[in-house]
Amino acid sequence: MVRMVTVTAAPNAEAEVVDLVSALIRFDTSNTGELETTKGEAECARWVAEQLEEVGYTTEYVEAGAPGRGNLFARLDGADSSRGALMLHGHLDVVPAEASDWSVHPFSGAVEDGYVWGRGAVDMKDMVGMMIAVARRFKRSGIVPPRDLVFAFVSDEEAGGKYGCKWLVDNRPDLFDGVTEAVGEVGGFSLTIPRRDGGERTLYLIETAEKAMMWMRLNARGRAGHGSMVHDNNAVTAVAEAVAKLGRHQFPVVLTDAVEQFLTAVAEETGYTFDVDSPDLEGAIAKLGPIARIVGATLRDTANPTMLKAGYKANVIPATAEAVVDCRVLPGRLAAFEREVDELIGPDVTREWITELPSYETTFDGELLDAMNNAILTADPDARTVPYMLSGGTDAKHFARLGIRCFGFAPLKLPPDLDFAALFHGVDERVPVDALKFGTRVLEHFLQHC
Ligand SMILES: [Zn+2]
Fold first, then answer.
1. Is the pTM here over 0.85, yes or no?
2. Which of 9, 83, 384, 411 is such that its CA lies 20 to 30 A from the CA of 424?
């Protein structure tokens, strides 16, 4: 007699990931940088806890320095706990969104036209959803990773981590006990480039370095006076001169290892030449398309004036004037950068750092890198992984203080014509459904061989 047995298989990670990302986007976790108006992180973190506890995880909920700044941690034991643990980290907060600018509501999580739409779709609820999907799959299927895994869902990345990873690293380093390596944003995504012999090559950019994020305040002190009279010591003029000089200044091109290796790989594939001494190096980089905005910014330090403050009446010369400049500095360049800035602003304007998040750099090698490479090539055999430097900053800067080796690896296979860089903090932020499924497959393979 034949007996029919119906086996209901546990849903796999790929099947769940789209719903998870859509649900995550529906939590409005806008981080304005102000405690009073930031919201949603606690609810979102508790929801993540439910998704993990449902399949058997024990989780720990931690508020980072202020009520409502919710973080969620879970661990999965690996086969060899004597090896250092690998952490996967994703931030739950997003930058605010102005709904009237969007084609869909930014917190709808709509799944339409092959995309999941909404604020956080690529920064970085995509990766958060993939992490939850794979964590659930491993637990439900009894998959034991080769080493311990730590899943970290964190707050306040978009405002620098004061109420997120900076606080956690300073106050709860025990949460990261045993963690030697970590992966998070911004890397693992694809870039399609033309090949020199025709056709195309898909590169996957693994982030191995980040510029320093240094916010500088300039202060000029002059003599207050009447706007109708001759006046030779005007603070507004002094700060304006310094700001204009800094804003127009080109810092020297300095090729760090990550940038050099990236450009060498692109040159091999495309036949393009990148001549560091050429005045048109930026022009050559522009051929890469929209990603040139990031790659171009990793060739040299930048100093972009962003805020000005002075005066209170049209006919009163104020005694002081100030400006804020967003400086992004290459690894190893800080002292030289400061010397150059001091020469530009001159002796009458003083400067101070109001935010200092150091640069980060690791090498493009080792077993974990091999595991990332193999996971990508298993899913996309004709592709190639390359290192690159992020012009911005991530939570990796905080984890690096604990001696954790960090990579940006949130894998996505993107349509060749998608302007991925513009989606970060942009209007109509969205992530392709196929890219999420691809990324989940890659992450699953990676974590089984890490
Ligand atoms: Zn992010």
1. yes
2. 384
Q: Using 50, 70 and 90 to split pLDDT, how confident is the model at 5?
A: low
pLDDT tens track for 368-407 = 999 999 999 999 999 999 999 999 999 999 999 999 999 9
Tell me how far the alpha carbon of residue 94 lies from the centroid of ligand 1, in angstroms. Answer: 7
Q: Where are the beta strands (DSSP E) in 106-243?
A: 111-112, 115-117, 149-154, 179-184, 189-194, 200-210, 212-221, 225-226
Q: What distance in angstroms lies between residue 286's CA and the mean position of ligand 1's atoms?
A: 24
Cα(125) to centroid(ligand 1), Å: 9
CA 2 to centroid of ligand 1, rounded, Å: 54
Residues 345 and 364 grouped into a single domain: no
* Alpha carbon of 184 to ligand 1 centroid (Å): 9
Give, for 436, the enclosing helix (H) or strand (E). helix 433-448
pLDDT value at 9 more than 80: no
User: What is the extent of the structural domain holding 17?
Assistant: 13-192+360-448
Q: Do 420 and 314 have their domain in common? A: no
Q: For residue 199, what are the contacts with CB-CB under 8 A and spacing of at least 6?
A: none
Q: What is the pLDDT of residue 12?
A: 87
347 plus 387 within the same structural domain: no
Q: Does 186 lie in the same domain as 105?
A: yes
Ligand 1 mean position, distance from CA 123 (Å):
4
CB-proximal residues (5 Å) to ion ligand 1: 123-124, 185
- How many domains does the chain contain in total? 2
- Averaged over 255-270, what is the pLDDT? 95
The answer to the question of residue 6 being in a domain is no
Q: What is the CATH number of the domain that holds 308?
A: 3.30.70.360
Per-residue burial over 121-134, b if 16 or more Cβ lie within 10 Å, else e, is bbbbbbbbbbbbbb
406 and 345 housed in the same domain: no
Q: How close is the Cα of 120 to the center of ligand 1, in Å? A: 8
